Amino acid sequence: MPSHPHDLLRRAIALAAEARAAGDPPFGSLLAGPDGAVIAEERNTTVTGADISAHPELKLARWAARELDPATAAATTMYTSCQPCQMCTGAIARSGLGRVVYALSDEQLAGLKPGGGWPDVPQEGPALYAEARVPVEGYY
């Protein structure tokens, strides 16, 4: 029986609570198929797994890219306790998932963190276009 979107968000929030109880940051996510059935779920394990990239959204995107054909991936919805970060958003796009529904926005999350969000890291570029394009040109 298909689940209501709020029920799926509540499950993502419950996964976030499980992550926190285990000593990890409080984030949880799941993938639902077009019928609303949960096909995979994950929680944050960045602390217990000693891996800064172990966000549930990233883990699900990687799973979907390995396990689902493109049409199935495009028909899924990720339900997540918080809006995906830039790293996870990139992985979600590359995995071909259909859409994302989240509970807390980035702004809301930053308001709950002492000191707000993460600091910006300065970036410089582009540079060395003629050299950098060589391994890329013709790949896509």
From TrEMBL:
It comes from the Bacteria. GO terms for molecular function: catalytic activity. Transmembrane segments: none annotated. It holds the Pfam family dCMP_cyt_deam_1. PROSITE patterns: CYT_DCMP_DEAMINASES_2 (PS51747). CDD domains: nucleoside_deaminase (cd01285). Residues 3-120 form the CMP/dCMP-type deaminase domain. SUPFAM superfamilies: Cytidine deaminase-like. This is tRNA-specific adenosine deaminase.
